[in-house]
């Protein structure tokens, strides 16, 4: 039953746009068309569990939906006594759709049918549906909701979760949008030539809005919402196939592909933002980058054929391409990017574009030049509550060593953002500016020697005396210290008290082993510089046996198990840890090949012996999570693995990497804080201990 419902859902996402578009052409009412399509979906849910999934499930749904549309048209025409021409069209459609061998005729008999090439629901109809959903008569929020509903096939609940609003709000937006389209008598047709460019711009705006909300969420706890970016990419690729001669469509697809390629490097293990210049470029997805380059070439070729200048999406894609071509952050062609932004400002002189130009100019020609442009935007009312304006200004001031001025800018940016991860990042920059303001290193070259923390850290990591594992480990410690103290914090300003405050800010809640690992890394760095012996000693070492692990209260766990709306991966991991009581590392290290589902047990990678066993709750969830996979890690991230990742930690079918302990712990702690605000110190170890304390299934 679960497999059938999954098949129905998958088919619906792929075919819903074509079905709704075909029905809209038949009944001339997008609201009624969606209701008829939903009727066909209900019919599939009722019939397929008994009869099996048809060989061509999309055609089956189309046939049933069209048959219902024909019945609806008949009833309406009989009741309302339509005009003669309309009645003639109805008879012709009835004759064609109910003829033996036709799709509708077979659908009426419950058998799958295949529409002819010229039937409704072809590419032109889907394109018409996209233009209708994104019509300028609708508000921006309504356009986004209606497009995700009709074209992407998302439910109201899925859209609500993506935009962090209630399902009622989404349902109201969709209903209001349908009513507005009906009252305005918006025709189901492609706009005429003179209007096409303007209307296409509206469609692209909606697709990019959906992408951006997933790429940098405006609210909530997480910086990214991968579901939205993937839906936007799907819509963009669909649109590129429907309108292959439109350069801006290919430009938008190229832009989204390349931006999405960075998803695996844009956040740390705990969901914190990682700035572009600090990202590990080895984690950028090379497949998405290549796809972006191909789309960019298509955009360039079609623009040349059309004979016009490059549009705004092509220019933004060119900027993304420039970033992707740079092997390191230092090798980025900022002068070229600044030039592209100059062209973009002439074409699209919005305040946000001008702010982005200021960032590029600040990198290409120095922070003073960028700051002058930012200050020119300070009075713009459109940016009054835009958190990136003070954020950018604070960054430029910090690069100039004006930390006392940068600090209030970061504070204001943190107050304006609605995203928790971004706010935490900005507040860390507030603390870093406060610490750095005590001692400010002179600009590079001013004293004949580089004395800033960033320069010393990079020199230490590159000096050649470290193995790759040590470089990775030490880089984690030094990167966090650089974020806390500031890149230009002078080595001469490091005191035992400063180092202690930095460690407390970064790792105050860490386990003794984690604290001591970072302490050891700092001591190695300090000995290499070398720093004053009192500073090089580092913070005091933490010792002592681990404290007793308290189980989580049964009532709180009951609330957790009732939350079936949480992601399947997380629910499976948590239930498996609870029922097995196995070490977290052992469970996360499980591969699909290790599982023996019939015996509800698995052998661990370390010993090869059967050491992990579970009960019915975990067994049911594991079967659903693994599905028909035959290899790779059991628990996967939502991202493709970088090229440097060990092949054993990558799913061969999808290229996705094994879920890390840090990410799994962060997700569980975040859920615990929401479900149990008075005792939100949930950890995966506590969850496993809870299962051992409560052996009941």
From TrEMBL:
<dbReference type="GO" id="GO:0016987">
    <property type="term" value="F:sigma factor activity"/>
</dbReference>
<dbReference type="InterPro" id="IPR000838">
    <property type="entry name" value="RNA_pol_sigma70_ECF_CS"/>
</dbReference>
<keyword id="KW-0731">Sigma factor</keyword>
<dbReference type="GO" id="GO:0003677">
    <property type="term" value="F:DNA binding"/>
</dbReference>
<dbReference type="GO" id="GO:0006950">
    <property type="term" value="P:response to stress"/>
</dbReference>
<keyword id="KW-0804">Transcription</keyword>
<feature type="region of interest" description="Disordered">
    <location>
        <begin position="80"/>
        <end position="124"/>
    </location>
</feature>
<dbReference type="Pfam" id="PF20239">
    <property type="entry name" value="DUF6596"/>
</dbReference>
<dbReference type="InterPro" id="IPR007627">
    <property type="entry name" value="RNA_pol_sigma70_r2"/>
</dbReference>
<protein>
    <recommendedName>
        <fullName>RNA polymerase sigma factor</fullName>
    </recommendedName>
</protein>
<dbReference type="InterPro" id="IPR013324">
    <property type="entry name" value="RNA_pol_sigma_r3/r4-like"/>
</dbReference>
<dbReference type="InterPro" id="IPR046531">
    <property type="entry name" value="DUF6596"/>
</dbReference>
<keyword id="KW-0805">Transcription regulation</keyword>
<dbReference type="Pfam" id="PF04542">
    <property type="entry name" value="Sigma70_r2"/>
</dbReference>
<dbReference type="InterPro" id="IPR044068">
    <property type="entry name" value="CB"/>
</dbReference>
<dbReference type="InterPro" id="IPR013325">
    <property type="entry name" value="RNA_pol_sigma_r2"/>
</dbReference>
<dbReference type="InterPro" id="IPR011010">
    <property type="entry name" value="DNA_brk_join_enz"/>
</dbReference>
<keyword id="KW-0238">DNA-binding</keyword>
<dbReference type="GO" id="GO:0006352">
    <property type="term" value="P:DNA-templated transcription initiation"/>
</dbReference>
<dbReference type="InterPro" id="IPR013249">
    <property type="entry name" value="RNA_pol_sigma70_r4_t2"/>
</dbReference>
<dbReference type="InterPro" id="IPR036388">
    <property type="entry name" value="WH-like_DNA-bd_sf"/>
</dbReference>
<feature type="domain" description="Core-binding (CB)">
    <location>
        <begin position="451"/>
        <end position="530"/>
    </location>
</feature>
<dbReference type="Pfam" id="PF08281">
    <property type="entry name" value="Sigma70_r4_2"/>
</dbReference>
<comment type="similarity">
    <text>Belongs to the sigma-70 factor family. ECF subfamily.</text>
</comment>
<feature type="compositionally biased region" description="Basic and acidic residues">
    <location>
        <begin position="88"/>
        <end position="98"/>
    </location>
</feature>
